[in-house]
Amino acid sequence: MKNRRLLIGIVVVCLALMIAALPIVSACGEPDKAGKTLKVGITTPTTGKAAEKGAPMGHANLDCFDYINNELGGVEGYRIEVVWRDNGYDAAKVVTIVKNFMDEGCLMFTTSSSAMMTASMEIANRAGFPGMAAFASPILYRPPQHIYGQMPDYGDDWLVFAKYYMENIWKGPGKPKMALHLLNNTTGYGARDAARAYAADMGIEIVATEEHASTTTSEMESLTRVKALNPDVLYISSTPAPTAMVVKNAYELGMYPGITIGCGHASFTSAFVDIAGADIAEGVYGVFPTVNWGDNVPAMAKMTEYVQKLHPEDYEKRNMDYITCWAQSLIVAEILRLAVKNAGYDVLAKGGAEAWKAIEEQGIQKLKDYDAGGLHGPVSYTPGDNRLSKSVRVFQVQGGEIKPLTDWIDAPVVKYEDFDWFGK
Amino acid sequence: MSLPCGTRNYKYAEDMAIVRTKTHWVLLIGFLVLLFTTPLYFSNYWLGVFNLIGITLIAAIGLNILVGYCGQLSIGHAGFIAVGAYTAAIITNRLELPFLVGLICAGLVAGLIGLVFGLPSVRVKGFYLAITTIAAQFIIIWVINHWSLTGGFVGIKVPYASIGGLVFRSESSQFYLITIIAVLCVFLAKNLARTKVGRAFIAIRDNDLAAEVMGVNLLYYKLLAFFIGCFFAGISGALLAHWIGFLNAEQFSFTESILYIGMIIIGGLGTTIGPIFGVVFIRILQQLLTIELVPLLEESLTALPAGFATGVTPMLFGLVIVLFLILEPRGLAHRWALFKAAYRLWPFSY
What we know:
The complex is a heterodimer of chains A (424) and B (350).
Chain A: H1 2-28, E1 37-44, H2 51-71, E2 79-86, H3 91-104, E3 108-111, H4 114-127, E4 131-133, E5 147-149, H5 154-169, E6 177-183, H6 186-202, E7 205-212, H7 220-228, E8 233-237, H8 240-252, E9 260-263, H9 270-276, H10 278-281, E10 285-288, H11 300-310, H12 312-316, H13 320-343, H14 345-349, H15 352-363, E11 391-398, E12 401-404, E13 409-410
Helix pairs in contact in A: 2-11, 2-13, 3-4, 5-6, 8-9, 13-15
Chain B: H1 12-16, H2 22-36, H3 38-41, H4 44-69, H5 77-94, H6 99-118, H7 127-146, E1 156-157, E2 162-163, E3 166-167, H8 171-192, H9 196-206, H10 208-213, H11 218-244, E4 246-247, H12 254-267, H13 273-300, H14 308-327, H15 331-345
Helix pairs in contact in B: 4-8, 4-9, 4-11, 4-12, 4-13, 5-6, 5-7, 5-11, 6-11, 9-11, 12-13, 12-15, 13-14, 13-15
């Protein structure tokens, strides 16, 4: 009884403290206008159902900003202050997080997943608060507003893979038959939209479009339908676990090997090979917008040093999402550098709409062939196209490892909004 | 209803009044003044959190009518909120009709969809009914994802709410809109519980067989509870749509439905004040953990494996809920009632 009263008392005191602390917390949230820092907001799904990707991406963001602040002395002498929040892959939560970034005086924000950016983009667009998504789908920036894509989107993946397939793999007569197996969200539908827009022009016949959930445990049924249509190539746009499930089921049905399998970049990481098994995944093609671990590029040594020191578990898994977000942080630093140089620190220090405008017009839109340490393709802003890097490379699983087959291939800009079916 | 010592009622109207004493009036007016001057004290972020609380509260009130008063367990509430949100989006975006038309239609359409999924309640109850409402959640989300009118998986934009020439752009203007509607909903729910309908709901919850024997039409009242509960969910969805500005089916997950059940249990089932306590508690807890605690732990607990502190947060969130269920299964509303009782008797506690 005594313990019960004590516990109830603690709960009541906690509640009272929570309510009493609100104004203090609110006051603490005022923008730091006098500080000599440049604030950026980073939100990653470090917990929740996308944590397998979100956690290493968050690590990379924070590790890279540590490197920039500690070894490079920040940006133009100003330290980058990171406001990091775990969104738990929760759409309602990410909306309040982005509002929190604006309130904290952040100059811009980044998300790792397209789904989280989709949930929060209108809040940012309405306020003119610039955001950048590591993984993007066309809906984020077609038509272009204040949201930018760090890398080519899921539609671009399909375009590059289809081009590579037609030029290097397809040897048969007539049109190849392609089946699409898509995650039931923007990751899958980005590829579907690109195929819808360009498959006929590229001489590809889309014979099936199947969907799966991120929690799928079997795709035997859908693949049996696909198998009956005798496709030449199966394209999967999804995350690692479901992609591995589709490939494993295709293997069990005797479809693969025998047909070509291609994957979008949301899945084509070491996690996919681990889950599917190296023997089953052998020969699967995929596109990815960054280099691989161990590649001879300028940023590799420092990134490897930091990941081994701070997050060795990500290095052991050779997680390619880590590379993506290390590059993302380098790009953010470059945007801040350009904005400080072109607009001046004082404009940025004021915070709010004026600073956000300066970040966009004097930072993001001044990006021209920026090399993110060779980690991915060149980063440029092109008017009317909010994709900052437009290139991917084609890879293949060989001997259990993901090996590059090509150099950077540029994906063309697609004006999806010109198609009357887009967004319906 | 218990009253402070010395308070007597001389008329039926006095007996029926919600606010009875001068102290009640002073406290109520003070609270409303504090509530409506909130934008003066808080930043945009916290106003955003309060807007989310207001929107969630409206949906939780609806669920409380359905589950707390009428005893019809529904675990698909996020689906009904989605119906309201998408109805408002279609009406204001695709059909370009005014916000108020969208708001009312959102409530009505969600209510009607609720009626359809409430039909099994005539034959099944308890966990069996829960399963049918889970089906509602998944069917609704599937339809949204595969219907071109809703924008499918891509989603749909929603304009700012506006009434006449007044456009609710800023966080503070949205706060007033949401708060006024939330206050109205609380008032409606409070009164509903005191009407013939409310008493029929309670009778069905306590013993449906006895209620039927006494002349309560089970089919009518159960379906009415579904309609009212889902109507509130629809209104909540419409406000959510205009507040966020972009809808995607991922915003209405099954986890959200479970969370709503958690909110009304923590607050106190079958009370008007319960959903308010539950929603405020859960939403503030979520924010404090996300915005304050996790970054603090990640910074200070550097000796622990990376991501440990972040991983602890969902466990902490679950732990708080479990502790509540163990220590105060009747919810915060019961604790509030005890507090008020103690206050009334003080200093003559007998």
